């Protein structure tokens, strides 16, 4: 059934039509089901101008007052969670229960992030000198989000950017703009005009934002290739502040003392959640040879239990890949792996039906040097690589341009801790993976990102430090 609902841009507190429209594909069918507004460059100018006008007033509110507004925004989303989840499932593909969890999780994220406080710091005080460190809003933040977890990404950026006293222009991915535009309808009712503006459009719109002289900072989540382009453009357009959350090829290392029955379900979830389309999903699994057969068998059993289908059908636990490009890329990586000797313990090819369905796939018989192990697959295909020497496994995990997160799985937490500290990543876990927390700075080492979000460290990312140095 096509969706006849009208979706609107949010500019200066008003819901507006786009200059044009573009089609949104339901990935469970591979067919367009709705239209999204396509913002023009003039509409971007209007949104930026509105955000600039609103910033002094918003920045002048107390932390408590901003938190209050964001709380109303979160509550508004909570009340419409089911309606948003319905649309969001159709555009993103994930099962309805997961979509609902993402939306409700986003409301809690907004509330938790808005409670983080950045206090001025006293640097020095003596002999008539008082030196303090303050943090000021940056001005207008441009936020650009990807298609895999767009509601979570929008919620984190909105809460962190706005609580810091900035105003914002946010652009969702052209693949999944609808849920975010629905957040805009709620913002129109709950936030002062101009504080948050939401524009959907193509990649060009993102590039215009990065070049725009009225935008002071870009907060971006997406691929490393786009992140690098944004970094280069931001530096030549006003030396914009940037925070980049990019791709990953997270390794999980299973030690010889692991309890397979406990670890396998956690590893499976961290590899296959959202059909593997998560930046910090486990994307390669190194297993000690003594546990290899048991771990493979346990993961295959879990993969067989998964129920694939349209996310709106009851009982479905795994949806399609979100878009055709990603679907074709994952198929290509499976074919390349097969040509290099991969054995597919389960899965291994796309389902012969409409939509972008690939079943959970466990690949063995390959190692580092094959694309499925070396590259970010961003799909439901997990290579399991055998190792004998732990130092070699750590070296292989670290031998990547990426460094988002990684994990060690063991019954000996002390040993796990020591090994986790050797991983060249932004977050190193022991006996867990893909469990980010609002109280911990989140971001990537190496080409997985630049800067951190979340916690006080992340809050400061959205601010400019200012020293105030006084001589009495
Ligand atoms: P993408 O880089 O293709 O697109 C992301 C966003 O950037 C979209 O809104 C797109 O329209 C916009 N964009 C594209 N070209 C642009 C340009 N030149 N200037 C400005 N904006 C531009 O990424 P994607 O395919 O949507 O997302 C998947 C990637 O995101 C994966 O690599 C994944 O690992 C990564 N990701 C990272 C995190 C993290 O927190 N580190 C979280 C989620 C996803």
Automatic annotation (TrEMBL):
Q: Known Pfam families for this protein? A: Aldedh (PF00171)
* Boundaries of every Aldehyde dehydrogenase domain copy: 20-468
Keyword line: Oxidoreductase
Q: Which GO MF term does the entry hold, naming one?
A: oxidoreductase activity, acting on the aldehyde or oxo group of donors, NAD or NADP as acceptor
| Active-site residues annotated for this sequence | 245
Keyword Oxidoreductase on this protein?
A: yes
Q: Which domain of life is it from?
A: Bacteria
Database matches in InterPro entries? Ald_DH/histidinol_DH, Ald_DH_C, Ald_DH_CS_CYS, Ald_DH_CS_GLU, Ald_DH_N, Aldehyde_DH_dom, LUC3-like
What does the similarity note say? Belongs to the aldehyde dehydrogenase family.
Which protein is depicted? Aldehyde dehydrogenase
Give the species this sequence originates from. Answer: Rhizorhabdus dicambivorans
């Amino acid at each position: 059934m096509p969706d006849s609902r009208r979706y609107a841009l949010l500019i200066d507190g008003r819901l507006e039509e786009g200059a044009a429209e573009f089609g949104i594909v339901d990935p469970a069918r591979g067919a367009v089901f709705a239209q999204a507004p396509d913002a023009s460059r003039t509409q971007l100018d209007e949104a930026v101008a509105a955000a600039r006008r609103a910033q002094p007033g918003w920045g002048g509110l107390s932390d408590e007052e901003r938190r209050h507004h964001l709380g109303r925004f979160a509550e508004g989303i909570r009340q419409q969670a089911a309606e948003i989840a319905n649309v969001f499932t159709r555009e993103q593909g994930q099962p309805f229960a997961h979509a609902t969890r993402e939306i409700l999780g986003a409301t809690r994220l907004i509330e938790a992030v808005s409670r983080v406080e950045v206090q001025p710091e006293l640097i020095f005080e003596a002999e008539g000198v008082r030196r303090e460190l303050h943090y000021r809003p940056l001005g207008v933040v441009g936020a650009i989000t990807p298609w895999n977890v767009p509601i979570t990404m929008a919620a984190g950026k909105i809460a962190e950017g706005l609580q810091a006293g900035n105003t914002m222009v946010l652009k969702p991915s052209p693949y999944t703009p609808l849920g975010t535009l629905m957040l805009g309808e709620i913002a129109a009712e709950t936030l002062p005009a101009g504080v948050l503006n939401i524009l959907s459009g193509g990649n060009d719109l993102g590039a215009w934002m990065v070049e725009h002289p009225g935008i002071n900072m870009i907060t971006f989540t997406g691929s490393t290739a786009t992140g690098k382009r944004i970094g280069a453009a931001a530096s030549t357009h006003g030396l914009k502040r940037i925070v980049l959350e990019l791709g990953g090829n997270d390794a999980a290392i299973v030690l010889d003392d692991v309890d397979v029955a406990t670890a396998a379900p956690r590893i499976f979830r961290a590899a296959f959640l959202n059909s593997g389309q998560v930046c910090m999903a486990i994307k390669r699994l190194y297993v000690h040879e003594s546990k290899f057969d048991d771990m493979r068998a346990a993961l295959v059993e879990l993969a067989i239990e998964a129920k694939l289908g349209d996310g709106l059908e009851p009982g479905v636990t795994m949806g399609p890949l979100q878009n055709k490009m990603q679907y074709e890329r994952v198929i290509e990586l499976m074919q390349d792996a097969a040509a290099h000797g991969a054995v597919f313990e389960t899965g291994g090819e796309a389902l012969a039906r409409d939509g972008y369905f690939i079943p959970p796939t466990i690949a063995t018989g390959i190692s580092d040097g094959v694309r499925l192990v070396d590259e970010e697959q961003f799909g439901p295909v997990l290579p399991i690589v055998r190792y004998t020497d732990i130092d070699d496994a750590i070296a292989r995990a670290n031998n990547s341009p990426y460094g988002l997160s990684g994990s060690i799985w063991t019954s000996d937490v002390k040993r796990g801790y020591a090994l986790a500290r050797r991983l060249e990543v932004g977050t190193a876990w022991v006996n867990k993976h893909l469990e980010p927390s609002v109280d911990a700075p989140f971001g990537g080492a190496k080409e997985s990102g630049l800067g951190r979000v979340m916690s006080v460290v992340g809050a400061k990312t959205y601010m400019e430090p200012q020293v105030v140095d006084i001589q009495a």
